[in-house]
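quick one before i forget lol
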Amino acid sequence: MTRTEYRWLLPSAMADPELPGDRARRRRTVRDWVVDITAFLCAAFIGMVAVSVIDADESTADVVVFVDSVVGAAACCALWLRRRWPVGLAVALTAVAVVEPVAVGALLVALFSLAVHRPLKPTAIVSAAALVTVPVQPLVRPDPQTGYVASVLFGVLLVLLALSWGLGVRSRRQLVLSLRERARRAEAEAELRAERAQRLAREAIAREMHDVLAHRLTLLSVHAGALEFRPDAPTAEIARAAGVIRDSSHEALQDLREIIGVLRGPGEAGEGERPQPTLTTLDTLIEESRQAGMKVTLDQRVAAPAEAPAATGRTVYRIAQECLTNARKHAPGAEVTVTVTGGPGDGLTIEVANPAPNEPFERVPGSGQGLIGLTERATLAGGSLEHGPTPDGGFLVRARLPWPAG
């Protein structure tokens, strides 16, 4: 996933101070209609109470009551614009409420909407203006039944109540949005981890393919070359070489089938899976190499090879397999010595050494990645591997692998 594709995972509150839904929708949903109607009815109820209080005052002219009613109705109807222009509506109603008490209900609803749908800065500015006008309204339109101080305190309390309610709703929406974005981000990160694990598994399969098939294909190449350059060889040798070619081809096909089964996914590898090699199967590998015509000496000094950890034993097997393959390519005819020592707590040490070849030979091409793969395999197993030429012109590979005690 690229950096550009990852940007959408950032919380909206960080990328944009406005929440989704702050801007008016082109079409109202059912929930929007319910909320808008409820807000209109609340503002209308407060306006009707204010009109009834004004009408109860005998000193108020009927024309003033009529004008207040019309202005109050217009203020309530203007609330249908609160989603599209919450700031402008709140500013306009703040100015109207100074001279028209019946617009107070609409102003409270507008301040609530402003706090819900706009960031803190414009909300704070408009709210400060509304609080400043609260002491002015009782002076312009005093209420004979309520004192000035009580009117101011009651007005400030209503404004603060509407603002705090709106800010609480917005904070809750931001929290829900943050949790949703966090869940999406966690899901995306889980997908990235799964892709990385899959990629690492495929790389491990590729290394396994190299280690396994290189051994088989080298046998095919060596014996096919022998048949090509020695067509007059005894019948027994030709038959033995042909048998090795046949067996190696069969084993290579088996290995390819297993690898393809792993690539297909869990549970789809088929019923023909063979057990993975361990330290106990090292003798079989040595015997297979001897049957192919190699001179191999195995010095097995591990008292209980069956008790070795499966991963460590498999690593030892693969190291020996790759070293025998390399010796067959680069030192044909030379005697190879495989030494395995160690035990629980001391770890396992495998050494594969061969002297320089005595006779000239035709080199078999290689990928050059075998020793690199062995080093990586040993490192992943928690050990180390070193390799290099010996003073007599031979080659030595030594690997140390962990074997925990107990």
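fyi Confidence is low (pLDDT under 50) at residues 1-16, 266-272.
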